[in-house]
Automatic annotation (TrEMBL):
Keywords: ATP-binding, Kinase, Nucleotide biosynthesis, Nucleotide-binding, Transferase. This is Thymidylate kinase. InterPro entries: P-loop_NTPase, Thymidylate_kin-like_dom, Thymidylate_kin_CS, Thymidylate_kinase. It catalyses: dTMP + ATP = dTDP + ADP. It holds the Pfam family Thymidylate_kin. PROSITE patterns: THYMIDYLATE_KINASE. Gene3D superfamilies: P-loop containing nucleotide triphosphate hydrolases (3.40.50.300). The gene is tmk. HAMAP family: Thymidylate_kinase (MF_00165). It comes from the Bacteria. Residues 7-163 form the Thymidylate kinase-like domain. Belongs to the thymidylate kinase family. One of its GO terms (cellular component) is cytosol. It comes from Lentzea alba. Its EC number is 2.7.4.9.
Amino acid sequence: MGKLVVIEGLDGAGKRTLANGLTEALHAQGRTVTSLAFPRYGVSVHADLVRDALYGNIGDLSDSVYGMAVLYALDRRGAADEIREGLERHDVVLLDRYVASSAAYSAARLHQDEHGEFVRWVRELEIDRFGLPVPDLHLLLRVPVEVAAERAARREQADDSRARDLYESDGSLQARCGAVYDGLANIGWLAPWHVVDGRSNVNFSSLLAPLFTP
């Protein structure tokens, strides 16, 4: 059975870059890896509804914290069998965002912390009720909010298809979300967490070592 590794962090933190580096390191070790990014835009109707809402195309749906969280959760539920199959076939399944993203962003929108009602609710929905696979490790890519925002802005300028949505454009939300992420890491929510400094060179092999230590 493979290991389920989740990369979390603010928009613009560099999650895709970290995922690419980890994939290369795993291949260098002779291990197999498959990856998946959430939301699954263009694949899942629930993810596409999320995108439409985040760009203001479905009325006031984006105003509903729980409504948006259910769409995110249904997108992940739709991928559960793919994740399980990946764990059967590969050494590592690497996810760019997962359940903790909803926990962090939605709790931040409600001005709650890691001990709040919403974090408990999303766990009950996605893990207990939907039965989603539980991660073996979270990697929290931490960067200052200002750095993440600058990177997101540069990404937007370079690629029109990656224009910032309502969440990404809200600096105050991003700051609160970062605080919730830190709280989730501190309490080891769902699984162990390892914090990665997104401004420093990353030793990818050292991040993976705990997964394969006898």
